[in-house]
């Protein structure tokens, strides 16, 4: 590296450090986090306002059935309301735009509808489908506004694909293609517009020119004409630069403001809160990180895009584990102080015994204290384990219930649609396709995964209670079998045979027979179920 480049790099670092100090001095993350939590409480009302706008547009749509142009405009407004709010609805209205534009036989509207479909496909992480949609567009005779959006969508697709692949060879190719599309779009942008400023800055970031990218994006943020959504995008992008330069406090403040803007604009498809939770988890803000990652998961589930749910699901267990660890540290500190107070009490008692010569009484008191401490330790261990199990299974069943509600909503929507069109045969087919056996197998599979996350050594310790010839041998695809699942439920506290029978869909006699048969095969039948209850969680 030349001396000129070294000096340039040093100046950039000093500039970023100085700006970072100004940000940190202006306001601490703790105070900004309080603002964010206050806005989070307003989230249901803000979402309700957005839903009210959507309901008004839907009501207006019923009066435009004979006016295709009017119907097109309202469907476009509904798409714009849904595109960062709810994936499946935005996808539906993108197809409605295609249908109406084909009926109008308007090339510009047909192309515009394909762009809208491409945007929502990209938001869901469906790169192939996005390229398929964009590849059918012919831009030669299209208006400049449609061409500009076409170029920007292509640029974003290639940039996202480059970030997703993280491959030394293909990433360079994708970034080069994206840069060319940005250049084509910028030629059609007003130089005072948001798109011109933002994508100029984004191109600088991708090219590695962070110094000028900071200047460009900070100038854009200072603009008073940005919408909440535009501000959130810009602040979130700028935060990535400060993360790269190891200035997390500045990045946190930017992401807090971006998250506030996302909530105010009822944007569900956003990464600001996810990135913020990851940064806070590395600092002494574990509880706040957990609160935000749960909010990010709620948004991801509500929006419905698979890619975002996968991203949040990958981080949620990490932050949840950190939160549990933090709680354990607090409990350990409390235990330390309790122990310290106990020791001081014992010292005082010892001196009192020396003074009053009551050695026998003190020995009895010492014995009681030790027994009390043993009981206390045992109680704390049980509480920790119960808390861990409760938290894991509450999250598990909320996830399962959410999935089933989504499935019921889709079935309800399909049946309603077919009732409206009196397609009763299709309703029969739809109902016939509901495979309860498969759903129950999936439920058991999810239970097995969640249980083995808490008790990863369960199968090994279970087998240790039997002679070799009676140990459980699972098939390659199995996590637990029926024998293991019965005693897994018993380990979780479900000891009532009637409840076990209802959960596993067996008769009461079958459950009794299973338990008796398995217990009698163990090395010590009289101690078998007590040994099961003593298997430790992680």
UniProtKB/TrEMBL annotation:
Higher taxonomy: Bacteria, Pseudomonadati, Bacteroidota, Sphingobacteriia, Sphingobacteriales
GO MF entries: DNA binding
The DUF6377 domain, residue ranges: 262-501
Name of the protein in its database record: DNA-binding CsgD family transcriptional regulator
TM region(s), chain numbering: 334-356
Species this protein is from: Pedobacter cryoconitis
Keywords: DNA-binding, Membrane, Transmembrane, Transmembrane helix
């Amino acid at each position: 590296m030349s001396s000129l480049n070294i000096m340039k790099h040093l100046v950039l670092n000093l500039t970023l450090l100085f700006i970072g100090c100004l940000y940190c001095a202006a306001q601490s993350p703790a105070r900004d986090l309080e603002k964010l939590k206050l806005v989070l409480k307003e989230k249901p009302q803000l979402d309700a306002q957005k839903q009210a706008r959507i309901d008004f547009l839907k009501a207006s749509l019923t009066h435009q059935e004979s006016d295709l142009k009017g119907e097109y405009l309202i469907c476009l407004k509904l798409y714009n309301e849904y595109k960062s709010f709810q994936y499946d609805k935005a996808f539906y209205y993108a197809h409605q735009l295609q249908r109406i534009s084909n009926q109008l036989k308007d090339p510009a509207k047909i192309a515009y509808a394909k762009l809208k479909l491409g945007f929502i496909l990209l938001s869901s992480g469906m790169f192939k489908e996005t390229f398929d949609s964009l590849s059918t567009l012919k831009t030669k005779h299209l208006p400049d506004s449609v061409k500009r959006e076409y170029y920007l969508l292509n640029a974003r697709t290639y940039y996202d694909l480059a970030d997703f692949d993280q491959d030394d060879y293909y990433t360079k190719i994708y970034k080069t293609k994206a840069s060319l599309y940005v250049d084509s779009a910028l030629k059609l942008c007003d130089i005072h517009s948001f798109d011109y400023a933002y994508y100029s800055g984004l191109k600088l970031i991708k090219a590695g020119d962070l110094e000028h990218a900071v200047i460009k994006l900070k100038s854009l943020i200072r603009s008073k004409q940005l919408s909440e959504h535009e501000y959130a995008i810009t602040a979130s992008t700028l935060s990535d630069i400060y993360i790269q330069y190891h200035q997390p406090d500045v990045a946190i403040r930017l992401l807090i403001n971006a998250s506030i803007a996302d909530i105010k604009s009822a944007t569900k498809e956003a990464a600001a809160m996810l990135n913020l939770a990851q940064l806070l988890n590395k600092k002494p803000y574990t509880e706040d990180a957990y609160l935000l990652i749960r909010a990010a998961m709620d948004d991801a589930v509500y929006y419905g895009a698979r890619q975002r749910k996968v991203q949040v699901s990958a981080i949620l267990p990490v932050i949840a584990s950190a939160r549990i660890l933090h709680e354990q540290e607090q409990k350990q500190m409390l235990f330390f102080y309790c122990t310290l107070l106990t020791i001081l009490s014992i010292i005082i008692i010892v001196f009192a015994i020396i003074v009053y010569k009551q050695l026998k009484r003190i020995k009895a008191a010492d014995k009681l204290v030790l027994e009390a401490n043993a009981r206390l330790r045992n109680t704390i261990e049980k509480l920790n384990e119960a808390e861990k199990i409760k938290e894991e299974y509450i999250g598990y069943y909320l996830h399962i219930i959410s999935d089933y509600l989504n499935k019921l909503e889709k079935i309800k929507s399909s049946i309603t649609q077919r009732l409206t069109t009196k397609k009763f045969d299709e309703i029969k087919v739809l109902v016939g396709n509901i495979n309860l056996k498969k759903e129950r197998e999936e439920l058991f599979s999810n239970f097995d995964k969640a249980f083995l996350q808490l008790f990863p050594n369960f199968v090994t310790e279970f087998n240790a209670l039997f002679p070799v010839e009676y140990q459980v041998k699972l098939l390659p695809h199995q996590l637990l079998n029926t024998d293991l699942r019965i005693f897994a439920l018993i380990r979780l506290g479900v000891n009532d045979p009637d409840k076990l029978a209802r959960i596993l869909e067996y008769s009461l006699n079958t459950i009794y027979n299973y338990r008796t048969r398995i217990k009698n095969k163990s090395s010590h039948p009289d101690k078998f179920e007590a040994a099961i209850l003593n298997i430790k969680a992680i």
